[in-house]
Every structure is written in structure tokens, then in C-alpha cells.
Design goal:
Elements lengths: L1 E5 L14 E6 L3 H7 L5 E4 L6 H6 L5 E3 L8 H11 L4 E5 L6 H9 L1 H6 L4 E4 L3 E13 L5 E6 L3 E7 L8 E4 L14 E16 L2
Parallel strand pairs: 1-2, 1-5, 2-3, 3-4, 5-6
Antiparallel strand pairs: 6-7, 7-11, 8-11, 9-10, 9-11
């Protein structure tokens, strides 16, 4: 089943969600489900940013509460829950915003799902980010670029269906070489050998 996470950041569009889904709201992320008219299946977090009024509205929803002083974010705890529940796919929304440290960390956390064999995607109005270790296909989206950024010192990458294709070439974490590639086919592939990288579908 697809697990959907609403984090506490900005939700800058109304996402299209699968009919069969399990919805988790992280703390203040409950406001996004409320706005979209979605009843969550689980509330999770320390609840230092959700209003008392909205918590009262959803008081009958299953809730997992953590202390404010903890060593992990609410989004990470939600991701861990999804992995323990054997999710087939994880979609994360409202995990970006003004706090770049949170945005960056949420993107890096995608690697945790990839290592567990579960495709996970961080999505906003302009970007869809996922972690890849192995081979993954991506469908062309109009006006979107594809970028590959290693999550370690260097990785070996092959691509197909892109203007600048790679054939078992090294991408370095301290280089911008993998940024802003262009689709030349309806489907592109990215293969990461012996490592892991973030793949971004982004538009201006």
C-alpha cells in the first residue's frame, strides 16, 4: 500500500493521491490534511506546532506522541513507521519550506527508504526527489529537468533517454555535473552502481 506523509512544512499545491492509501500527519502537517478534506489514519510527532483546536477535531485518530526533546524529526519517525509497516511506496508532502536544513535532511532521509527497498518520493509543486541505488525509470514531464546528485563522495552512473547520457561514469558529490539534464525520450533511466544518489525531477 502507498503511505502518504504530510510534514509540517509548506504545501504549495493540491496533490493527486491514490485511492488506496494510509495517511500520516506529522504534527502541524495535520492542517494540510484538514485543508484537503482528508481524514488521516495516524498522527505522529511531539505536537509543538499543531493547534489545540485542530487536535481536538481529530482526537479520535490514532496518535503516536514523542517528547519535544528528541534526537529525530517528526518526519523521520513517520518514515520509520512506514518502513515497519512494509509500505510499498512512500509519498512525502509539505517537507520543504523556509528551513533549508529541514528540507535537505528530509531529502537525505529518502536514502533510508531506498536502502530498505521501498521507493520514497519528496514532492512539492516544482520538484519530485527520490533516492536511487540500482536502476530506476523516470517518465518525461513537460518542462522538467532531471538531476543526479551523489549522496557519497562519488558514484558510478549510467543513464538513458537524456540529452547528456552517462555510460558508467563517475559523478562526484563535490561537482555540479549531474545537474539539469534534459529528456529526449518519454522514459529515461538512471542506474547507480555500488552507491546511492538523489534524483531530482525539477522545473523552474
Amino acid at each position: 500500500m502507498t503511505y502518504v506523509i504530510f510534514s509540517g512544512g509548506e504545501l504549495d499545491f493540491a496533490p493527486s493521491l491514490p485511492e488506496e492509501k494510509f495517511v500520516i500527519c506529522c504534527d502541524g502537517g495535520i492542517r494540510h490534511a484538514d485543508t484537503l478534506g482528508i481524514i488521516p489514519d495516524l498522527l505522529i510527532g511531539d505536537f509543538d506546532s499543531a493547534s489545540a483546536q485542530i487536535l481536538e477535531k481529530y482526537k479520535d485518530v490514532r496518535t503516536i506522541t514523542f517528547p519535544v526533546e528528541k534526537d529525530f524529526t517528526d518526519t523521520e519517525s513517520a518514515l520509520e513507521f512506514c518502513l515497519k509497516e512494509k509500505a510499498s511506496e512512500i509519498l512525502i508532502f509539505a517537507a520543504t519550506g523556509n528551513r533549508f536544513d529541514h528540507t535537505f535532511c528530509n531529502a537525505v532521509l529518502l536514502a533510508k527508504a531506498e536502502f530498505a527497498g521501498v521507493p520514497a518520493f519528496l514532492i512539492n509543486a516544482y520538484n519530485c526527489v527520490t533516492a536511487v541505488s540500482g536502476r530506476r525509470e523516470f517518465h518525461k514531464k513537460e518542462n522538467y529537468f532531471l538531476s543526479v546528485i551523489p549522496l557519497q563522495e562519488s558514484v558510478i552512473v549510467s543513464t538513458t533517454g537524456l540529452y547528456y547520457n552517462l555510460n558508467r561514469e563517475k559523478l562526484n558529490m563535490l561537482s555540479s555535473r549531474g545537474i539539469s539534464n534534459v529528456f529526449i525520450a518519454n522514459t529515461a533511466s538512471v542506474t547507480v552502481f555500488g552507491g546511492i544518489a538523489l534524483v531530482f525531477l525539477s522545473k523552474d
